[in-house]
Amino acid sequence: MIMEQAKYTYDELLNQNNELHIQLNEANDTLHAIRTGQVDAFIVKGENGHQLYTLKTADQTYRVFIEKMNEGAVTLNREGLVLYSNSRFANMIGMPFGNVLGLAFESFIPKEYKEKYTEIINNGWEEDYKEELCLLTENGEIPCLLSCNKLELDEGVALSLILTDLTIQKYNEKQLKYKNDQLEVAQNATRKLNDELEDTVKERTNELLVSREHFRLLADNIPQMTWTSLPNGQINFYNQQWFEYTKLDFEQTKNWGWKLVVHPDDLPVTIEKYNYALANGHIFEVENRYRNGDGIYRWHLNRAIPLKNHADEIVLWVGTATDIEDQKKEMERKDEFIGIASHELKTPLTSLKGYLQLAASYKKEELPIAVKTYINKANIAINKLQHLVNDLLDVSKIQAGRLEYKLDKIDLADLIFSCVENAAHIYPEIIFENDACKNYTVNGNQERLEQVLMNFINNAVKYSPDSKKVIIKTIQLGNKVRVSVTDFGIGLSNEEIERIFERFYRVEDKKFMASGLGMGLYISTEIINAHSGKIGVESEPGKGATFYFDLPLITV
Ligand code: ADP
Q1: What is the model's pTM?
Q2: Which of 69, 362, 507, 531 is the most exposed place for a label (fewest CB within 10 A)?
């Protein structure tokens, strides 16, 4: 039965214990009432229903009541021998009812309780007395509440003992204590955890403070202007340099207030790129002019990167604005120089070419073979030089916005045919596959479009050291036509693709270096843009590249 109790919950045990306490108190009250004569009748619930017993009128009834009690009841004589025992007591100690009578009650008391027992009995003879102690039974010791009361009987005085079995109550108390201890352990663990958590929070707060101060210190000590903004684009921090440069305060420039100091010509592109970055989480990069406190605009390169949390959501943008005014000026000076130098080079080159032609035709028949060879080689070198000078001139014209063209109706198949023929002449070892089958007509400048296509073809040969095949193709894409040049050479990575159309950009490859200045694709882009077209490339490193341009078709 005790084992089953172990399955009870803490609350159930608590309830059961309370119930037992109530029962014990009730039993005590009843006994008290009987002893003091307050009660002279009982209703006892038996197998045959409720029965009424009268104490004063029938001693037999009283005995039945005692028998039916849940407590052990015993009377002792002065010597401590058992004069009477109810069957419940005999049950408690596990002895046949008849054997108990005449035994010394002390024999049911464990050794260590004997002293206490003597004290209780002595007190009991004096006055009503109650105390807890243990009884020795066939199943070991059981805890009991012992109540003593002196009885005046006809036969003489006797001591009545009422024994209440406290096993379940004690067990429950033990369980309660056990559960309480467990609760305390759990509480201690929680307290410890809480303390640790508090320590961690303190530590983190401190770290945060340090890192914020770190950021501020760093931000205020770099030469660039820096800022941070919320995911919706509102600026929530500027470093000291910003305030020093703009001579404005945070209130004036917070959120979108920075628009105040951006050059009106640069504002649309700045806003467009900023909004695009915010919407797509891409790095923001734009060059624009900011007005300083003296009303002077200076060029800046703006860059901002998104800071993401573990869930990959943007929590903050961190931006910098670097002053590039001096570099821009320097660049302009270089452009100017390139413009002048290429222009100055053009005249002597043209006359050199002319003189070479004269030399080649002068007494043609008499010219020694060696001289003819030199003249040919000089012509090739001059053509290359002229090509370079023309490119340089184009670049400076583009920079000055002066690359102009006359547009005519052009048959692309013709244009491609003449370029392929030219290429086959220059590169006799290469196989050019011309797949430009249909006649597509576009509005364009023959010379400039040839320049673009020849640039593609030259690059295809130049960047394919181990391949001998180049394919030139046209396909229709809606109301556009795509002209493409495919090679099977070194190819390009995605990062390289992003930059090759920039001015003077060349891929730095230590293994493979071809001569060039990084101007061809830049000029080609400008030419195609001016034709309302689009230039592009598809490539993978080591697998070759397909450069293409799309142009609007003329519908005849
Ligand atoms: P250049 O060839 O004179 O360097 P371009 O503007 O024509 O200048 O090309 C820019 C860069 O693009 C080249 O330096 C080269 O790295 C890369 N490139 C161009 N065409 C190809 C190609 N077909 N395959 C691989 N890389 C190419």
Answers
A1: 0.54
A2: 362
